[in-house]
Design goal:
Helices cover 0% and strands 36% of the residues. It is mainly β. Strands 3-4-5-6 form a four-stranded antiparallel sheet, with no helix packed on it. Strand 9 and strand 10 form a beta hairpin.
């Protein structure tokens, strides 16, 4: 089975490498204002939007917190996620944050 992703401005994209039989959406990784992107996984991979996160550890990956990064007053939210090696934000962007301490109660360590 193939897996497809609907992005803004309503473009359908195939998620190359995703296994449709085991594909599961985990949660939103970017606000609707940015894209309609979600974190997901299948039996072997972690996916952000329409991209497989090549360096993500599937077994330890989890969404830990949401954040609001709208500097101009417009609400633009995103999500922090971690695995044993990395902190991710904005649908797969790796930050310099500490994956051991990044949490919803300690967002400073996510950056």
């Amino acid at each position: 089975k193939n897996v497809y992703y609907l992005d803004l401005p309503f473009e359908v994209r195939k998620i190359n490498g995703a296994d449709g039989a085991t594909f599961t959406v985990l949660g939103q990784c970017a606000a609707v204002e940015v894209s309609r992107a979600y974190y997901a996984w299948d039996a072997t991979s972690v996916i952000a939007g329409d991209k497989v996160l090549e360096d993500a550890d599937r077994e330890s990956f989890k969404i830990v917190a949401g954040f609001d990064n709208g500097t101009d007053g417009m609400y633009v939210a995103g999500t922090y996620a971690v695995d044993k090696n990395h902190v991710y934000k904005n649908c797969g962007q790796i930050t310099k944050g500490n994956p051991l301490t990044c949490s919803s109660t300690n967002l400073k360590t996510c950056e």
